[in-house]
Amino acid sequence: xxxxxxxxxxxxxxxxxxxxxPACVVLDxxxxxxxxxxxxxxxxxxxxxxxxxxxxGIDGDLKVRFFTPRAETGLVGHxxxxxxxxxxxxxxxxxxxxxxxxxxxxxxxxxxxEGALYGFSQPLPPRPGPLPGEQLTAILSALDLDTExxxxxxxxxxxGIGGNRALxxxxxxTSLVKVRPDLQRLAALSAAGCPTGYFLYSVAPAIADCDxxxxxxxxxxxxxxxxxxxxxxxLLAAHFSALGRFRDRLRAGLYTGRQGHHMGRPGMLTVRLTxxxxxxxxVRVAGRARIVFEATLDLG
Length: 300
What we know:
Blueprint: E1 4-12, E2 21-27, H1 34-43, E3 48-53, E4 62-67, E5 72-73, H2 77-89, E6 97-100, E7 103-112, E8 115-123, E9 129-130, H3 133-143, E10 157-159, E11 165-169, H4 174-178, H5 183-191, E12 197-202, E13 212-218, E14 223-226, H6 230-243, H7 247-251, E15 255-259, E16 267-275, E17 281-287, E18 289-298
Parallel strand pairs: 2-3, 4-6, 11-12, 13-15
Antiparallel strand pairs: 1-2, 1-18, 3-4, 4-5, 6-7, 7-8, 8-17, 9-10, 10-11, 12-13, 13-14, 15-16, 16-17
């Protein structure tokens, strides 16, 4: 019998097809080696791909390996939501502890009047540090923005593993519409030492039913614009926690972020902060998902 893979195309952080952030979920790929996973990711059209595998040891319920078209990466938020939406649709038992490169995240299946949501929780990322002024000036120039667009109450920060994300707060959501990114310049800045992703957000959104709206550009990673980033919103929660902003809404799990509408893929997610032992905090990002189609790949 040939070796077959079940592949699901899923739109995450939305309940509408052709919206939110797309990912592919691959099942039954335990026999694949890393080069084959990377080749298949490239074949699947340039989206993040999650390979669902048996867990290593007793610490997890499943293992997921995430690939971009360029390399394996760590936790991918929207692809995690996609994985658990697929497992739920197949009637699989809940997998509460997900292993991936870099550790374990806790998974929750949630529900409200509109249906199911899937959340992933992890320790709150370390407090972001200031984005150096010379980097901020160069980044704003590459985005065709000036300093007047910046929110003075939300200083520009560097966050994430190795400082891989710039968090840049703007006065108004209307400024997000005006962004004209020079993607080649942004990629060159990343190569020269700037963060690899540029997350622009505003807590004065120009659209309804959210606390913030955002855009993110990651040309150095092969994604000119990322539709909806769960990981970036977790970093934003760490920033807000340090500043004491949105405390009540974050504690209640009511903080809502919207992203993707500027590129025709509107998406939404919620963020919750919870107090853990010894004063530490945990962040949960949650959203819906829509399975767009399923396919079977016969590798012979």
